[in-house]
């Protein structure tokens, strides 16, 4: 920390307490306690208003700051670009927009077009709108349904919540948009069928086919899935799942939309999570890691098959994608994203993510041997979860307050970890780890050690 923390910080805290509505939390405790203000960050670490250092094991709280804090190179590129040209609407091109799209598509064989927007929710909405428009253009509006999966999350807007698989998040916000249909989850640890391994994976995919058949294949336009479910429980897909999902989509001419808002841009050790599983998607949406939070940027990427459908009848005034995102025309996003991608390449961060992810998985598995409360450790790359259960045989989740206590104790030790969202009540019991892709063994040891101590303190 460079010492810029000054006496005025109390004024900042007062202003925050009086006027800021923080995301995703109950504010009552702030009437007496102070909100936490993060003042500065460098590498894997951040400092709060008290000057206390925290090792950030969740990349900015929500798996975003993939290349770590304090990257002057990104800040300088953004500064230079803003001075040259900060904005012009996305109806026209920009230099960083064109160059980043080219670099991005190089990493995504089979894909071809980048639609810029500024949040993960918005990127997903773009894909949903494209699916709806294709239904109208080609199928008289009939093939309009969008399938989504139990436990997956696709955003905070009403249409993306209509595709939200975490019931507790949706409670009190309905009614939702029609035409979104839920398919079962694919979490082997909490399997719905008495099967395991590949058999389970194929059964979970076949369950999607059952929904398609029940709805009528000619009414289903797309299937939207996270490659590894994030907030819903850090759920890695079972073997056999993805090949069968792909086969089903092809069989019924259903567009496959992969939501890479969390997994995208290195988080799992490949550029995109879907690339572990040999999938050929039609849509890929991404946000958080695209510019690691240095600028707001999100992308809805499509293949040429989808893009071509929007220029079939150029003489028809309704034939193009009639959509705009004002801030999709900001140049700071792609300028930051270009540098972010260059850093990942030059510093070998995909390789580091795979190596450190394997190391962390081993270390967390060792904790599992020590603490009976850890029911399962799972994840891919530096995107890991440790599910806490009251009983290993019954797999009954621990009381949510106890999972929160573990997070709180890690925080007190100066290590910020997360816990999965309240999804299906009783399932917000998975500790989450998504440290920056620059993590070292020492960082991981510190995170695991803090968890170890916290588990001992809370569970004995
Ligand atoms: N998809 C997934 C998988 C996410 O985890 C999130 C955000 N947590 C979103 C979409 C929505 O992104 P945003 O908050 O940028 O709208």
TrEMBL record:
Its cofactor is pyridoxal 5'-phosphate. Keywords: Aminotransferase, Pyridoxal phosphate, Transferase. Gene3D superfamilies: Aspartate Aminotransferase, domain 1, Type I PLP-dependent aspartate aminotransferase-like (Major domain). Pfam families: Aminotran_3 (PF00202). One of its GO terms (molecular function) is transaminase activity. The keyword DNA repair does not apply. PANTHER family: AMINOTRANSFERASE, AMINOTRANSFERASE CLASS-III. It comes from Roseovarius bejariae. Belongs to the class-III pyridoxal-phosphate-dependent aminotransferase family. This is Aminotransferase class III-fold pyridoxal phosphate-dependent enzyme. The keyword DNA repair does not apply.
């Amino acid at each position: 920390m460079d010492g810029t923390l000054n006496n005025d910080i109390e004024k900042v805290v007062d202003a925050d307490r009086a006027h800021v509505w923080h995301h995703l939390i109950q504010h009552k405790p702030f009437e007496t306690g102070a909100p936490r203000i993060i003042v500065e960050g460098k590498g894997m670490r951040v400092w709060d208003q008290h000057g206390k250092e925290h090792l950030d094991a969740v990349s900015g709280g929500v798996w975003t700051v993939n290349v770590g804090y304090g990257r002057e190179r990104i800040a300088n590129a953004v500064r230079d670009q803003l001075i040259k040209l900060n904005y012009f609407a996305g109806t026209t091109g920009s230099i960083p927009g064109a160059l980043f799209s080219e670099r991005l598509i190089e990493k995504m064989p089979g894909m071809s077009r980048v639609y810029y927007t500024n949040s993960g929710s918005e990127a997903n909405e773009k894909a949903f709108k494209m699916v709806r428009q294709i239904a109208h253009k080609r199928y008289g509006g009939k093939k309009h349904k969008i399938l989504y999966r139990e436990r997956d999350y696709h955003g905070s807007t009403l249409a993306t919540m209509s595709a939200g698989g975490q019931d507790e998040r949706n409670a009190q916000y309905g009614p939702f948009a029609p035409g979104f249909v839920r398919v079962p989850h694919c979490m082997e640890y909490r399997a719905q069928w008495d099967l395991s391994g590949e058999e389970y994976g194929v059964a979970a995919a076949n369950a999607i086919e059952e929904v398609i058949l029940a709805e009528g294949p000619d009414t289903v336009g797309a299937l939207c899935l996270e490659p590894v479910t994030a907030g819903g429980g850090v759920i890695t897909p079972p073997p056999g799942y993805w090949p069968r999902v792909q086969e089903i989509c092809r069989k019924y001419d259903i567009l496959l939309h992969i939501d890479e808002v969390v997994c995208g841009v290195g988080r799992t050790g490949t550029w995109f999570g879907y690339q572990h599983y040999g999938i050929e998607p039609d849509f890929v949406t991404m946000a958080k890691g695209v510019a690691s939070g240095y600028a707001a940027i999100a992308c809805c990427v499509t293949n040429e098959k989808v893009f071509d459908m929007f220029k079939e009848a150029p003489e028809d005034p309704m034939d193009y994608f009639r959509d705009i995102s004002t801030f999709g025309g900001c140049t700071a996003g792609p300028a930051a994203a270009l540098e972010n991608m260059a850093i990942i390449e030059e510093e070998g961060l995909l390789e580091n993510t795979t190596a450190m992810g394997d190391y962390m998985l081993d270390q967390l598995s060792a904790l599992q041997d020590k603490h009976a409360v850890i029911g399962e450790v799972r994840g891919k790359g530096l995107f890991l979860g440790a599910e806490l259960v009251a009983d290993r045989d019954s797999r009954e989740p621990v009381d949510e307050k106890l999972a929160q206590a573990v997070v709180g104790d890690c925080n007190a030790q100066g290590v910020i970890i997360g816990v999965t969202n309240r999804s299906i009540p009783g399932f917000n019991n998975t500790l989450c780890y998504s440290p920056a892709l620059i993590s070292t063994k020492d960082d991981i040891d510190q995170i695991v050690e803090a968890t170890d101590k916290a588990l001992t303190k809370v569970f004995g």
